[in-house]
Amino acid sequence: MLAIETKQLSKSFWKNKVVDNIDLQVEKGEILGFLGRNGAGKSTFINMLTGIIQPSSGSYALLGVQGPNDSIKKKIGVMPDYSSLYGSMTAINHLHYLADVSGKPVSRQHCMEVLKLVGLEEHANKKAGKFSFGMKKKLAIAQAIIHDPQLIFLDEPTSGLDAESVIHIHLLIQQLHQQGKTIFMTSHNLDEVEKICSRIAIMKDGRIKKSGTMDELRAYYQSTITVTIKHSPIRPADLSTMQQWLEQAGTQLDIKENHFTIQVESEQKIAEIIRALGTYKIDIYRVDVEEPSLEEIFLEE
Amino acid sequence: MLAICKREFIQSFKGIKSIIIIAIFLLTAYYSADFSDLLLSLSDDFTSEEKQIIHTVGISFLIMFLGMLFVMGLSHDIVNREMHERTIRFLVTRTSRTSIIVGKFLGIALFWFVCLLTSFVIISIFVHRFDLITLFQSASLAIYYSAFTVLLSVLIPKPSITMFLSIVIGIAFPILNGWVSLTSNVWVSWLKYLFPFYYVEEQNYSFLVVLLLAGVMVGIALLVFRRREC
């Protein structure tokens, strides 16, 4: 069963189309990373799915239930993009209250367990108004999971957190994934998305430009594979012939004394280059292959 | 809905404004009961019906003429504060918008009912009589004010504006209501049917219409809030 399915989902503010006919399917148990620059429409998309704003057109279904539907809210957890908390309420009371609002009351012991998961157990009785930005983020994540939802929306869960907290949250997300939860997260941190998401969607100007697993995205953008080959000296007589051949095999050729760098379209081309070097009796000492990072794919989009 | 109602109810008791208002109510109840005999002795013009309810006149006066100011003063930002600070997002992603509005309305309405009930209990201790109809009439006014406050807080997104309006409306409302009730101007006298005082003039069950008007205002607040982007 699909956890999220959208059909031609759009949102316009006046004449400005912020989300433009998005068709997206997220399988149950996936961690989908939603990437895009500021203003790409990521948060608007999440806000539509979670009932914060209404779509202008199109439809969506969460966990098989056509939205908007209040009955599904018990099964979803949401960490909104800008998390302002109830300043006069303690961390534990936050969780207790919001679980009650969800219609899934929890014990104070369970609240403590969730606070421990996000690393706030020592601040359980501290008022949220006195929390640092990072602590507020953690509490916002805790409230999203307090009622044991099946589908979790996290809007930039680690932005503004220190490195230790980021690792902590990554582990938590992976733990939730192992429990079978579906996680839909947006992020500006490309490494983070690459590391923990099972699938990625890249959004630009309100549309999804490309989605797939990291390998699928790399395959799609395979023209940017960069190969650096360190080799034994080339005989002067062979140099120009070899250079001509390499220029046909790839692009961005840069020949130095004992190594050259070239960009090729596919891994097959790398094999061809290695075979060609063999025919010129050139020994290969080292081959470095640089696949496009998510950052490069992202920037290309 | 119950969780939201419970929180609003408890929150209403917190803060210096609440303590002052509760103190005013309780003191008014005490002195209203204590001086009712003195008031009766001042004039012989009271009807037997008026003599029956003379000990609650202080509370009735308070809720009629200062009720709107008190209710709006305490709760003018009941919805728009959460929208302004975006905590409303925690609620709309968890429960229906109807539950949010109705829960908040019931929370403040219950607070005022408890305040009035306590005041009437204090009075009854002194006069050995409990005025149920007067209590319900006063409560219906408080419920009307609560519904109006919720509606205004949904319609106006900025808490600073509703704070200003709470003072203006709180003072103007009883004057305006009194005017439309007493005026013979046919162009405005029909407005008395939309205001609550007309329905609590007599000791009968017409106060139920006030509850109906409150229900209509909560309904309008719901319709607006359902379309509101948080």
UniProtKB/TrEMBL annotation, chain A:
Origin: domain of life: Bacteria
Every ABC transporter domain range: 4-230
Lineage, highest ranks first: Bacteria, Bacillati, Bacillota, Bacilli, Bacillales
Listed SUPFAM superfamilies: P-loop containing nucleoside triphosphate hydrolases (SSF52540)
MF annotations from Gene Ontology: ATP binding; ATP hydrolysis activity
Keywords linked to the UniProt accession: ATP-binding, Nucleotide-binding, Transport
InterPro entries in the record: AAA+_ATPase, ABC_transporter-like_ATP-bd, ABC_transporter-like_CS, ABC_transporter_ATP-binding, DrrA1/2-like_C, P-loop_NTPase
Protein name as annotated: ABC transporter ATP-binding protein
Key word ATP-binding present: yes
From TrEMBL, chain B:
Record's protein name: ABC transporter permease subunit
Keyword Transmembrane helix: yes
Gene Ontology MF: a single term: ABC-type transporter activity
Magnesium keyword on record: no
Short name of one Pfam family: ABC2_membrane_2
Residue ranges crossing the lipid bilayer per the database entry: 12-33, 53-79, 100-127, 133-156, 163-184, 204-225
Keyword annotations: Membrane, Transmembrane, Transmembrane helix
One Gene Ontology cellular component: plasma membrane
Signal peptide range: none
